C-alpha cells in the first residue's frame, strides 16, 4: 500500500489499481481524503487498466466533512475530485457500502460503474443540513436515476438500501464480500469486458417540467419556510441542459445555501444531537438493564413501557388494581399496533412483546428481578415518596430507581430510600414511545454509573438523552414555564391566543403555546401554578386568565374545550370574553402587537431563562439546552435552538430587547449576568460550547 495522503492509500494488483479510503469513523470527505483521491488517481491511471475504489471501515464516504462548512475549503474541492474521477484515463468502479451520503454518493456517481454491498445506505441528505448536493448530485443524479428519483432523494434526504439503489439505477450491480475483494474482482471484470462502464456526464437527460413543477408546488405547500429544498429543485432543472453549465449553476446555488442562516442552524442541530452524548460521567461503566419495572399505567407509564418493549426489554408494569392494569394493557397494545402500522415493528414481534416480554402486576414484590424501575405516577411529592419507600423495600440491590417527574425535586424523592446513589430522574416526554428527548436528571448523590446507565438506556430506546441538574422543571419545563408567562402577558396586553400561536408558527414551530397547552391538558399547568403559588415572588406579575379557563373545566382537547373549541379547533369565544374581563379588571387598554414583536418577546424570554439555567449549572453547555428545545419542544431545527438563535441575531440585540421590555416589567425582564457579560465582551454561546469541548 502506498499512502496518497493521511487518509487514502493505493496499491497495484496486476493491471488493477485499488484505492482505499480510511478516515474514521465514517470516511467524511475531508481535505486530506479529497487530495488523496486525486493523488491516487494520478498515480494509478498511468500504471493500470482499471481502478476499484472502496472505503475501509463502516462506510464508503458519509459525505462532505460537515465540520468544514462555513470555513474556506482547501483545494481540491469536492466537485473537482468528482471531475478528476470522471475524467480519469481508465475506468473507475466504486464499491459502495454503509453510509454513502451526499458528497460520498456524488463521488460514486462520478465513477464509471457502481457495485453495492448489502450494508449500503445511499442518499442525498444535504437538505437536512440546509444545503443542496454541491458536487454534481443534482446533475449526475438525473443522468443515472432520472429527474423524479433525484428530486425525491434530494428534497427528502431519505436513505435507500442496496436493492432500491439497484432498482433506481443508482448502482449497476449488487455483490457481497469484503470491499477490497469486491473492488479487485470488479476492476478485473471491467478489464475482461464483463462489467460495462460509462461516463455519467455524457448521458442525456430529458427535460421534465411536469415533474419539476409537481415537486416545486408540493414543497411550496409543505415547506415554504425552508430554503434549500426549493433550491434543490432549481438546481435539478439544469440537468437537462449542458453538463458543464449545470455544474456551474449547481455550484452557485450551493454557495447561496452555504451562506444562509438556515444552513448554520441545521448543522448546529446535527452536532447538538451528537454533542449531548458527551457528559461528565461517560467514563463510568453502565449497569446491565434487561428487565424494567414501570410504576403506573397511565399515558406516561404505558408509553414508557411501550418504548422499553419496542427495544426488546422485559417489562413489569405495576398498577393499583386489575381494572387499571386492563386499561394500561389496552393503551400499550394500541401503541404497539401503531408501531406495526408505521412499519417500526412486525406483527409477530408485537405479539411476542405482549405475550412474553410484558408482565402486569399489582404487587411490588414482582419488581424483584428488575434492573431498573421507573416511577410514572401522579405528579405529587407525597405520592412519589410513598412509591419510592416501597421500591426501596422490594427492589433488588443495585437496581436503579428512576422517577419520571417533570418538575419535582429528585433529591427529595431520593430521601425516601436508603440508596440515593441509585436514584435518578428520567424525564420522558409524551407520547414516551415516540418523542425523541429524554432528560437525565442527576441528583446530588446519583452515582456516575447510574448516570451512564440512564444514557445507555436512552440509546437502547433510540432516544436523545440530555444531562440536567435538579431544579423545578429541569431544563425544558423550567424554560417552558418562563416563556409561557410571556404568552400570558401578550394576551393580557392585547394579542389573542390565536394571534400568538400564529406568530409562533410563523417562526417555524409546528404549534403555538396555547395549542400546545390545549394538547397537553391545562390542568397540569394549573396544578403547578397552585403548587408554586406560596413561593411566587410578590413582584411577579400574575395573569389569571388560565386559571379562569381551568375553573370552567376547559382543560383543552381532552375536555373538548380549552383556548380553542374541539374538534374543529376554532378559538373559544368564551375565553376571549374572559380575557376582556381580566383586562378590564386590571385597567389594561389592549395594544396591537405585530407578529414580529410577539416572536421577539417570546424568544427573548426563552433565551433569558436558558441563560439562567446555564448560570445555575443545570445544563452543562449551551448546546445541551438547544438540544432539549429541538428534540423535546418542537423548536424549529433551522433556527438551531434558542441559544444558537441568540448567537445568530447577536447577544447585544437580545440584551437591548430585554432592557426595552423591562420598562414595562422590571422583575420579569431581568438581563441574566452571563448574557450581559457575553454581550459586553463580544462573546457567544458557540464559544462556550467550544470551550466545554
Ligand atoms: N462530517 C463530519 N463528521 C461526521 C459526518 C460528516 N459528514 N458524518 C458523521 N460524522 C461524525 C459525527 O459527528 C460523529 O462524531 P462524534 O463521534 O465525534 O460525535 C461520528 O461521525 C459518528 O456519527 P454518528 O454518531 O452519527 O454515527 P451513526 O452510525 O449513528 O450515523 C451517519 C452515521 C449515517 C453517517 C450519520 O452520522 C450521518 O447522517 N451523517 C451525516 C451525513 C451527511 O449528511 N452527509 C452529507 C454531507 S453534505 C455533503 O456531502 C455536501 C456536498 O455535496 C458537498
UniProtKB/TrEMBL annotation:
GO molecular function: (3S)-3-hydroxyacyl-CoA dehydrogenase (NAD+) activity; 3-hydroxybutyryl-CoA epimerase activity; delta(3)-delta(2)-enoyl-CoA isomerase activity; enoyl-CoA hydratase activity; NAD+ binding
Xref: Pfam families: 3HCDH (PF00725), 3HCDH_N (PF02737), ECH_1 (PF00378)
All residue ranges annotated as the 3-hydroxyacyl-CoA dehydrogenase NAD binding domain in the record: 292-468
Catalytic activity, reaction form: a (3S)-3-hydroxyacyl-CoA + NAD(+) = a 3-oxoacyl-CoA + NADH + H(+)
EC number of this enzyme: 1.1.1.35, 4.2.1.17, 5.1.2.3, 5.3.3.8
Keywords assigned: Fatty acid metabolism, Isomerase, Lipid degradation, Lipid metabolism, Lyase, Multifunctional enzyme, NAD, Oxidoreductase, Peroxisome
Residue ranges occupied by any 3-hydroxyacyl-CoA dehydrogenase C-terminal domain in the UniProt entry: 473-566, 598-682
Location(s), subcellular: Peroxisome
Domain of life: Bacteria
Similarity field: In the N-terminal section; belongs to the enoyl-CoA hydratase/isomerase family. Belongs to the enoyl-CoA hydratase/isomerase family.
Protein name: Enoyl-CoA hydratase
Source species of the chain: Candidatus Rhodobacter oscarellae
